[in-house]
Amino acid sequence: MIKEFRDFIAKGNVMDMAVGIIIGAAFTAIVTSLVADLINPIIGIITGGIDFSNLFVNLGDGEFASLKAARDAGAPVFAYGAFITAIINFLIIAFVVFLLVKMVNRIKDAAVRQQEPVPGAPAGPTQEELLTQIRDLLSSRA
Known about the structure:
single chain, mainly alpha, two-stranded antiparallel sheet, 5 helices
């Protein structure tokens, strides 16, 4: 059973998936920083500095200046601004990932094109031709 598990783990697909998960976790930090530190400030300038994340409707009693104050007081709130912010972040992250996948696919296609034989280029001898030549050389020396 341990041998089967070791064989399963050693398969290429499982290892590829593990590497993908590790790279994805590291990449998440980069994309999160890109969105929070570079793209969201630009969106803030375009929208006139509106911070969507603090928009909410108080469903309970009392008045609260911010969403954090309402949550700290334990008031029930409808935090639609945080939801809007999450949607904006998702769309930005999805677009950035799309661009990166597109770039990686372009690089892969270029690598595949370089490995393909050039049309009209002389082809080398086949395996059978090489074996025939080796046989003929060995029989001529005998």
